[in-house]
UniProtKB/TrEMBL annotation:
DUF1996 domain segment(s): 34-249
InterPro entries to which the protein is assigned, alphabetical: DUF1996
Keyword terms, alphabetized: Signal
Signal peptide annotation: 1-19
Name of the protein this chain belongs to: DUF1996 domain-containing protein
Length: 305
């Protein structure tokens, strides 16, 4: 009997169903830094940060991220995640749109290897100002829409042109193929899910971001949305939407991500590891690791560029 159980457990462990997990993370910092694109500088457009607070303008290793405090709900995950900051524009006044929820999803349906330690990647293009430029990077599925609505703009990467009754939502898929000989090289799989030659499939990361637009724009909008991303040249478009990730998971959880995951938030699925065995709020308070430099003020960040 015991032997049979072991056999069954073994089978489920190695099955390749499309399993996934969702983790919520609170924003803890808005700042004009970008350790991947502009290392060492304070000249970036504004970003909103989630996850490990051991982040400055210098690219951290996974083990450096693990020295920090995390803002998420999985104590095995000290990754850092960031996105361009979204503002509500009223004349000359830029007000940060509050984030209702930031979720990361990890899907391991096709993974061949765990996400490598120290791996950093970007999805989307901060310079894109049209749908064509977004589509130049296929399969990032950058999409803005109103939560609870089936309406989509002809350009799916453009902000909705009508008031959202619920939250405004951003969805973004990350590359899931990496060259293990040089982890600075990564890409998307092709349509059939196959990685480019010389690359291996890792679990796929996706962001879901819910913005509470009602709290800043209670009157709503009709036409170009009164919102502007820090990377955007003008309000109304979301084409420059992008996301950044630096791996801060512990190795045991990265291994478990290959065999666990699966299922939705709060349904018992959890990427386990030695540092946490269930979802839970962090007991520390994430802070700015480099508080005397850079700025959290949008207009000041424009001057520093
Ligand atoms: C981003 O978009 C710009 C404008 O189309 C383009 O020049 C640039 O090559 C793109 N960058 C990447 C990494 O795709």
């Amino acid at each position: 009997m015991r032997y049979l159980f072991a056999l069954l457990a073994g089978c489920s462990v190695f099955s390749t169903v499309s399993s996934w997990t969702e983790i919520h993370h609170k924003p803890f910092l808005t700042k004009n830094i970008d350790a991947i694109v502009q290392p060492g500088l304070y000249t970036s457009h504004m970003h909103t940060f989630f996850g490990s607070d051991a982040i400055t303008n210098v690219l951290p290793t996974s083990s450096q991220l693990q020295q920090g405090c995390y803002s998420g709900e999985n104590g095995n995950d000290f990754s850092v995640y960031w996105i361009p900051t979204l503002y509500y524009v009223d004349g000359e006044t830029f007000t940060e749109v509050p984030i209702f929820r930031f979720s990361t999803y990890y899907v391991n349906s096709r993974s061949e290897i765990p996400i490598p330690l120290d791996f950093a990647m970007i999805s989307g293009n901060a310079s894109a100002q049209s749908q064509d430029e977004v589509d130049a990077q296929p399969r990032n599925n950058l999409e803005w829409f109103c939560e609870g609505s089936d309406d989509r703009e002809p350009d799916i990467a453009k902000f909705p042109t009508k008031t959202c009754n619920q939250n405004l939502k951003l969805s973004l898929v990350f590359p899931s193929c990496v060259n293990t000989d040089d982890i600075s090289q990564y890409d998307f799989p092709d349509q059939s899910g196959k990685c480019p030659a010389g690359m291996k499939a890792i679990p796929q990361l996706r962001y879901g971001v819910w913005y509470n637009t009602k709290s800043v724009a209670p009157g709503g909008w009709d036409g170009d949305a009164p919102f502007q991303l820090s990377c955007g040249a003008a309000s109304g478009n979301g084409y420059c939407g992008h996301g950044d990730f630096i791996n801060g998971w512990f190795q045991d959880s990265l291994d478990n991500m290959m065999i666990r995951g699966g299922g939705g938030y709060n349904d018992g699925q959890f990427i386990s590891g030695a540092h946490a065995s269930a979802l839970g709020e962090s007991t520390c308070t994430p802070t700015d690791a480099d508080p005397d430099k850079g700025t959290s003020d949008y207009l000041e960040s424009l001057e520093m560029m």
